Known about the structure:
Elements lengths: L1 H19 L3 E7 L4 H19 L8 E7 L4 H13 L5 E4 L3 H14 L3 E3 L5 H7 L6 E3 L4 H18 L7 E7 L2 H18 L11 E7 L10 H10 L3 E5 L5 H10 L6 E4 L18 E4 L10 H14 L7 H19 L4 H8 L3 E3 L5 E3 L15 E6 L2 E6 L17
Helix pairs in contact: 2-11, 3-4, 4-5, 6-7, 11-12
Amino acid sequence: MKRNIGLVLFLVVMFSLAMAVDPIKIGAVNPLGDITGNQSTKAMRLAVKEINDAGGVLGRPLELIVIDDEMNPAKGAAAIERLATVEKVDFFVGGMSSGVHLAQVPILKKYQKITVWAGGASHQIEIAMGPDADWYFHLHPWDYQQGEGYGIGWREIVQAYPNVDIKKIFLAYEEGAFGTDSYTAYLDLYELAKKGEGPWQGIMEEFAGASFKSAALGGGDYRAMLNQAKAFDPDLFVWAGYDADAIPIVAQAKEVDFTPDLLVGAPPGWPADFGKNPLAENVILYGMWAPTLNDVSPVAKHFYDAYVEMWDEEPVTYFAPLGYTNIYFLVEGIKKAGTMDKEAIISALRTIEYESPLGEVLKIEPSRIIPNQGFKYQKILQWQNGRQEVIWPIDLATATMAYPFTFGK
Length: 409
């Protein structure tokens, strides 16, 4: 009898130990064939490794389960369904494409698991998500926040660089949700500027735009759009598309002899070797991070060095540190809550101030619709000698802006 009692106690202890080390499952959906999703996923795996090496969370290891959405909305939605029902994950993270994320919103609302989403800039997403999704945390700035931030940035740059003059702005935008909503946001800001209001007042006296089909979605000929821009003769030319558009847009701009004083690209990621291309010199880019932040941020330097050591490659897209932040921010919330209780974690995430490798502190505030928005603005950077230098914010600047733009040889 004593032997049986001992066996039962042994089994109970072993079962308890097994339960105690059950992993906390995090389900990620990323476009693995795109550099943004590829490097974001690698950065997530780095964060999970660091956290597990340090003992995990609440005495449990993390398990990251990744599904490739292939930049396909239907596959992105199916991935959320699979993670919820087959993999039975505890949390959702990841993402890049706005179009994909819009298709995922109904599935996310169906399960209402705590979601910390790194990507998706279209404000249509927060409209679809609605104001009551207290379990949804969005890290990337919305399109209208980005537009506001760029206006603030260019106004400060004009003040800091007396030789820079901005009056006419042209936006070239990919014809999907990301680009179209970016254009809509600019139109709203232009209406304010005409009234002498908003962040673009005084530097957006004229505005025009044209769409193009992204090379990432079967396009690649930008000449018609570039000739429209050339005829408008802007001081500031911005294109909003994907990394596949970067080299051909600049090459075709040179081909049609379109040389604006400020040539700006605003994709979520850039080709890994873009900075080595002579055409990259002095191209300006919008982004949330640059490797040169290592010079001014110890957190950024730790991330960069650890990423290179683990993957034997350099992170070149801001979705790498954003993916790293995606995991750490969620984990800090779980730690602060001290429990896996959903409401406790939601409350904790709303109060965290996480010093991120993007060179700024991440904290949650309401946006226009959703209660839990993270970062508000991007940064203004410039390719100089193969490096992404920070131009704005001025207090994080790593170089002086080269102006005006001229094509490299």
